[in-house]
Amino acid sequence: MPRRRIGFWYRFAAVICKPPLVVLIKRDWRGMENIPADGGFITAVNHNSHVDPFAYAHYQYNTGRVPRFLAKSGLFKKGFVGAAMRGTGQIPVYRESTDALSAFRAAIDAVERGECVAFYPEGTLTRDPNGWPMTAKTGAARVALQTKCPVIPVAQWGCNELLPPYTKKPRILPRKTHHVLAGPPVDLSRFYDKEMTAELLKEATEVIMAAITRQLEEIRGEKAPETPYDPRRERIEQRRRTQAASEPAPVRTQGKQAEGQGT
Which InterPro entries match (predicted)? Predict the structure, then answer.
C-alpha cells in the first residue's frame, strides 16, 4: 500500500517547528531502518516532556512516514488549531464514547489506509521519579490486535532535560541532546484471533511497554526498575499513608498504666 503524501499542512508545520528544535536540541537518532517503508503501522513512544511530541514528530518526519497523533476531538473544532489538526491528519479521540474500541475507530481506519499512528501508551507524562516508562493504557494494543499491524517501539530521552515533566521553565543551556531509538516490531502474534479481554489487552500492553523500556535502557545505559511505576497503585498507597497519619495514636488505658507502674 503506498505511503500517504506529506501534504501542505505537515510541511507548513515543519517550516514553523523545525528551526527552533534544531537550535535548542542536538540529535542522536537511531533505528530509522525499523520504520516500515509502506503500509499501516503503529509507533508506541514513551512520554517524558511536553516538548517531546514535537521532537519525535521531527524524527519521524525525516523518515518520510509522518505520524498521526491521537488528540482530543475538541481540538479539531477550534480555529487555526483545528484547521492544522485536520490538515496534518491528526486523529480525533472521542473520549465520551462508552465503547473503548469505537473510541479508536479513526486510528484503526488510518492504519488500514496505510498510515502511521503514533501512540503514547502511558496516556500522559510519566510520573516515574526517574523518568522510566510507567504502566500504560491499552489503546495501542487494541488497535494493534484489531489490525494486526506492526508495532514499532520507540524510546526517547533528552527533551525531559530541556523541559522536565510537570514544569514550565526550560533549561536551555547547556544544549541538550534528543536521543531516539526505534526498535524492530514487537511480536504480538500470540495474542491474535483471541477474545479481546481486559487481561489479554493488559498482557499485550505490557509486552509493548517492555520493548520500549529495553530501548530506553540502551539509550541511558542503565537498567530500569523491575516493576514499572503504577500511578494508580501509588495513589492507593498515598491515601493509606494519609489515612494512617491522620488517625489518632492509641490511648493506653489506666489499667495498663497501673500495671506498668507496678512492675
Answer: Plipid/glycerol_acylTrfase (IPR002123)
Do residues 10 and 61 lie in contact, with contact meaning Cβ atoms separated by under 8 Å? Answer: yes
Instruction: Say if CB 131 and CB 47 are below 8 A apart.
Output: no
What DSSP assignment string belongs to 42-91?
A: EEEE----TTHHHHHHHHHHTTT--EEEEEEGGGGGSHHHHHHHHHTT-E
> Would the CA dihedral through 125, 127, 132, 133 be positive or negative?
negative
pLDDT digits (tens, 9 = 90+) for 51-68: 999 999 999 999 999 999
Contacts of 156 (CB under 8 A, 6+ apart): 45, 46, 48, 52, 55, 56, 59, 178, 179, 180, 181, 219
Write out the H or E segment, with its range, that includes residue 30: strand 25-30
Side-chain half-sphere exposure of 40, counting CA atoms within 13 A: 18
Cell triple for 261:
507502674
Cα separation of 109 and 119, whole Å?
15
Residue 247 has pLDDT above 90, yes or no: no
Give the length of the chain. Answer: 263
Average pLDDT of span 171-179: 97
Element (H, E) at 155: strand 151-157
CA distance 84 to 76: 8
Instruction: At 87, give phi and psi (nearest 5°).
Output: -65, -35
Distance between CA 244 and CA 26 in Å, rounded?
A: 48
